[in-house]
Amino acid sequence: MVALALDNIGAMYGRSSVLSGVSTDILEKGSMTAVIGPNAAGKSTLFKRIASLISGPGLVHLSDTERAQTSICYMPQDTGANAVLTVYESILLSAKQGSGWRVHNDELDEIDSILKALRIDALAFRGLGELSGGQRQLVSLAQALIRKPEVLLMDEPTSALDLHRQVDVLSFVSNLARRKGMIVLIALHDLNHALRYCENTIVIANGTMVASGKTASVITTPMLQEIYQVNARIENCSQGRALVIVDGPI
Ligand SMILES: Nc1ncnc2c1ncn2[C@@H]1O[C@H](COP(=O)(O)OP(=O)(O)OP(=O)(O)O)[C@@H](O)[C@H]1O
To answer: What one GO molecular function would you report for this record (predicted)?
Structure first.
């Protein structure tokens, strides 16, 4: 069974340390973990460190995988638009990363099914440079999913999406994680998404971890006051789901 654990992770840009002390219990396959915190806290930096794009102290334990590093896929926050490629070509290119260039029919079928699942099949032969921000974000998700990662690091994947697409994408990823046994870490600013979709939550502020554990025990009124400087309540809606209601800044 694939499992991930972070042991006192830190990260450096050049010689300056921007992140330290991030540890988690074992994150099991099929689980979603939210990474939350204010702007510039270090969420993207944590993902880059886990994906070995930057260096730093601590250990990323990934157990029971045969694919090691290639099984971790980082979906960045800013998806640069390469105007030369079509949507389809960009996903195919992502599928072939790290493998041979021969294309098999089943890979093309996979691309078709991901495009359909994300409801972007109509965009297949449009140039990346012609897409809206939300469309580019969905293509970026398709580029990540085609690689069948065991660990998927999603950096604010719904920030450019409308309300329908946000819940559509998060429900899809959460079901996929459960079905395929994928471990998902997801940086989020919408804490209601964290409460709804993520079993675990890591809170980062000023480059250090301030909490890590079950989402319901981490997202609390005192945490919101201390870390986000807002007065807020956690209330159950009529369907019994916990929601953050923000009353205003402190
Ligand atoms: N390439 C870089 N070189 C030096 N410092 C960097 C670099 N990238 C990010 N930083 C700094 O590292 C800190 C953490 O940035 P990071 O992008 O991880 O924050 P974040 O929590 O993802 O923020 P946001 O919610 O605004 O996206 C910030 O102070 C940022 O300025």
So the answer is: ATP binding
